[in-house]
Amino acid sequence: MDQNTLKKSAAEYACANFIHDNMKLGLGTGSTVTFLVDALGKRIKEENLTITTVSTSSRTKRQAESLGIKVVDLNDVDELDLTIDGADQISSDYQGIKGGGAAHTLEKIVATASKRNLWIVDDSKLAEPFGSFPLPVEVLKTALHQLLLKFEAKNLNPKLRLDENGEPVKTHFGNLIVDLHLGEIKQPHELGQYLKSQVGVVEHGLFLDTVNTVIVGREAGPECIDTIR
Ligand SMILES: O=C[C@H](O)[C@H](O)[C@H](O)COP(=O)(O)O
């Protein structure tokens, strides 16, 4: 089975088992969430469900609205019942790295506004060591040079993210992404605190103690893991 088939199976399992009528639902970003949004559009139509969603990117918003899914601004809701999102890497104790698609700041704001968070992934996202996926950090353009110097001095191996044309990738908020090529993150909480305290850092892609449920697409079928949070 290829990765896309595994992503689709995790997304469809989440849609069938975790979405209920009258829910306020956060929608993540990425290729796995694309399968979720497709399945959600279908369920809403077939079962005439009333679901209000908040999106974490213009990409997800466009797809959702094209399928007739109601999308509102986060400023118009007090709390979301659940957010379903993808992840780039998950550790054995269910800490996450997100932002491979540069969407982690908005994703973190929406995740924080949610009673529960569920991640849908294919089994490659559980690869070890945690931190082998480069850690995305959203930074203000004005602070870029200073932050690169600081991160280099701390051996965090920073690289400005460029697109296929060699231009800096811009986030939803017009900021830049620096990826930290760390190889392994042994102390994610300490690293998260350090990054958060640097002036000019908007948000980093470590999602710590966030996820309640992980659905992993596997050859044998979707595995649903309760992380006991
Ligand atoms: O910025 C992007 C997000 O954090 C995505 O959730 C993450 O990159 C996973 O994406 P995908 O489902 O495409 O692997």
Structure description:
The protein is built from six helices and 14 strands. By secondary structure, it is of the alpha/beta class. The protein folds into two domains: 3-126 and 208-226, Rossmann fold (3-Layer(aba) Sandwich), CATH 3.40.50; 135-203, Alpha-Beta Plaits (2-Layer Sandwich). The chain has a seven-stranded mixed sheet with strand order 3-2-1-4-7-13-14. A four-stranded antiparallel sheet has the order 9-10-8-11, covered by helices on one side. A hairpin with a 5-residue loop joins strand 13 (213-217) and strand 14 (223-226). Helix 1 packs parallel to helix 2 (31-47). 46% of the residues are buried. The structure holds ribose-5-phosphate. Ribose-5-phosphate binds at residues 28-32, 85-88, 98-104, 107.
Largest sheet entry: 7 strands, mixed
Measured by DSSP, the beta-strand proportion falls in 25-35%
Q: Just name the CATH architecture of the largest domain.
A: 3-Layer(aba) Sandwich
In CATH terms, what is the fold-level topology of the largest domain?
Answer: Rossmann fold
> Under the CATH scheme, which class of the largest domain?
Alpha Beta
| Count of β-strands | 14
* H and E string: HEHEHEEEEHEEHEEHEEEE
Name the overall outline.
globular
Helix content: 25-40%
What Rg, in angstroms, do the CA atoms define?
17 Å
The overall average pLDDT, rounded, is 98
- The number of helical segments is 6
* Domain unit count: 2
Distinct ligands: ribose-5-phosphate
Uncertain stretches: none
User: Largest sheet, order of strands side by side?
Assistant: 3-2-1-4-7-13-14
The SS-based structural class is: alpha/beta
| Through-space gap between termini | 31 Å
Family: Belongs to the ribose 5-phosphate isomerase family.
GO molecular function, one term: ribose-5-phosphate isomerase activity
Catalytic activity: aldehydo-D-ribose 5-phosphate = D-ribulose 5-phosphate
InterPro entries: NagB/RpiA_transferase-like (IPR037171), Ribose5P_isomerase_typA_subgr (IPR020672), Ribose5P_isomerase_type_A (IPR004788)
